[in-house]
Specification:
Blueprint lengths: L21 E5 L10 E6 L10 H16 L5 E6 L27 H11 L4 E5 L3 E2 L1 H4 L6 E5 L4 E2 L13 H9 L1 H10 L2 E2 L3 H4 L5 E3 L5 H15 L2 H12 L5 H15 L3 H11 L10 H4 L27
Parallel strand pairs: 2-3, 3-4, 4-6, 5-7, 6-9
Antiparallel strand pairs: 1-2, 7-8
């Protein structure tokens, strides 16, 4: 979860924003200003929330705003209607295959990276079926709650495509290489059973109507009781930790040393002894340890073209 752009304008009310193919709501709905829990809804129910470039732009912007907004603590992502997401809108497609491959960036990957880089955790409420990018874009989330009677799948191979949205990084780390290989190679859709998905889904609920309320319950608990700074640093350690037990120990020790000097640690201890809810106020953008990010950040912007006249003559 490296740093994100700083030139993001944060609105007073997310409900006043007009973003294409998504809707952002406060929790509770109608609150005049941003709330600790916000709900992002994929909002193309007439198309089963099929993914579009405009939806990708809206989601990417939304996660960048949440990252920059200290009022937001937790995000819930869900869909309108009976399906969470039917994958890419194939009537629109993926472009015309023109231009350089080096300049192409898949739109699902932009969303996944924005979610992953956001300091605030995302809980996905899959109230209905999801396939393709509807599944891969949820992988950077901290939790996925789904409907037990719906079906889910990574169907790319059945459409003549490879996986995207950084799924080759996230999926095997979440479910193991064996299950990931089975899911992406069969391209089939399955009920949310452990034998197919392992523990990819944190909770599987019998009724679709239960999914969003449960996700909001979990999000509210996290917003009220979890330090955003500690949560963000811990997730970064999990995703970008050391490559050996010794390296993990050295890195965790440095980050832990930083954390025990922060006000959130003092507040966490005091609230425990005083038997009250904590009031964590440290903005992760300001309170992250000096070494953060401790891994090399790749530049994912398009490569700069150099004309013949601009090339070095050396």
């Amino acid at each position: 979860m490296p740093s994100m752009e700083n030139s993001i304008n944060v609105p007073s009310s997310y409900e006043a924003l007009e973003l294409t193919h998504i809707q952002i709501s406060h929790h509770p709905f109608g609150a005049p200003a941003a709330t600790p829990v916000v709900i992002v809804t994929l909002n193309r129910p007439e198309k089963h929330n099929a993914f579009t470039p405009q939806m990708a732009d809206s989601l990417t912007l939304a996660f960048k705003m949440f990252h920059a907004d200290p009022r937001v603590k937790t995000i819930v992502l869900t869909g309108a209607g009976k399906m969470f997401c039917a994958g890419m809108d194939l009537d629109i497609g993926f472009g015309d295959n023109q231009g350089r491959a080096a300049d192409f960036r898949d739109i699902g990957g932009r969303v996944s990276l924005a979610m992953h880089r956001c300091h605030k955790p995302t809980i996905v409420a899959l109230q209905g079926s999801a396939v393709g990018v509807g599944m891969t874009m949820t992988l950077p989330a901290v939790s996925r709650i789904c409907h037990g009677k719906s079906k889910y799948g990574f169907v790319f191979a059945r459409r003549g495509l490879t996986i995207e949205s950084c799924a080759s990084y996230f999926l095997p780390r979440l479910v193991g290489f064996s299950r990931a290989m089975h899911l992406i190679t069969t391209g089939a859709v399955y009920p949310p059973l452990e034998k197919y998905f392992g523990d990819l889904f944190t909770e599987v609920l019998p009724e679709a109507s239960q999914v969003l309320p449960r996700a909001l319950e979990l999000a509210q608990d996290m917003a009220e009781n979890v330090s955003p700074l500690a949560s963000s640093m811990s997730r970064a350690l999990m995703w970008e930790g050391g490559d050996s037990p010794e390296a993990a120990h050295l890195l965790e020790s440095r980050v832990f040393h930083h954390m025990i000097g922060q006000s959130d640690y003092k507040e966490g201890v005091n609230s425990f002894f005083e038997k009250r809810k904590p009031k964590f106020e440290t903005d992760p953008r300001e309170g992250s340890c000096p070494e953060y990010p401790w891994w090399p950040e790749l530049n994912i912007s398009r490569e700069t073209r150099v004309s013949k006249d601009e090339k070095s003559k050396l």
